[in-house]
Amino acid sequence: MNPITSAFMPNATNMIRLDHTHTMATFHQYKSTSKPQVKRGLVNTVCLALEVHAQLEEEIFYPAVREVSDIEAIRKALPEHAEMKRLIALLRDMEPEDARYDDTFMELMRDVMHHVADEETLILPEAERLLQDQLGELGARMMKRRLELVAPRTADIAVNMARAMPAPSIAMLAGATMAGVLLGRRLMRH
Question: How many CB atoms lie within 10 A of CB 178?
Answer without folding.
Answer: 10
